[in-house]
Design goal:
The structure is a single chain. By secondary structure, this protein is an all-beta fold. Helices cover 0% and strands 43% of the residues. It contains no helices and nine strands. The protein has a five-stranded mixed β-barrel. Strands 1, 2, 3 and 4 form a four-stranded antiparallel sheet that branches. A hairpin with a 4-residue loop joins strand 6 and strand 7. The two termini are 21 Å apart.
Length: 141
């Protein structure tokens, strides 16, 4: 888990961004030093939870094992996954993330509503690395 990028569990799981008090721009990943809007004089950056639902803006699939420096066990088979760019209308930004396991590009369409859910990026005997994933609304798993 990347500290400060998300919080909560279940229905309370949310990505955390920051909003500039001067221009109201929202940033994800969060920005804690300065407003990234080049036309803004700068303001205080406040943490804000982002919308849990959005619409598919674009998507693709990861069918091959990425090269180094990506770390993976070459002894294990590569598991393809769908990568989804989701537009959050209220925040006016697009957030990239994996689709939940079992959702493929054949299950996705531009404009489809999806919701944010917690997922497991990786785990070993001592640690579970949590991340965010996107799930089409109406799907339970």
């Amino acid at each position: 888990m990347v500290a400060g990028w998300f919080t909560g569990e279940g229905e309370g799981f949310r990505l955390l961004g920051t909003r500039c008090s001067a221009c109201a721009s929202v940033f994800f990943p969060r920005e804690d030093v300065f407003c990234r809007n080049p036309g803004c004089p700068g303001g205080e950056l406040r943490e804000v939870p982002l919308s849990r639902r959005g619409r598919v803006w674009s998507y693709t699939d990861g069918r091959y094992r990425p090269p180094s420096p990506y770390v993976s066990d070459p002894e294990l088979p590569w598991e393809p996954y769908a990568l989804v760019a989701v537009e959050l209308a209220e925040e006016r930004l697009v957030v990239l993330g994996q689709a939940v396991a079992g959702v493929t590009v054949a299950d996705l369409a531009v404009g489809m509503e999806v919701e944010l859910v917690p997922g497991v990026l990786n785990e070993d005997a001592e640690t579970v690395w949590t991340t965010w994933q996107w799930r089409p609304t109406g799907v339970t798993a």
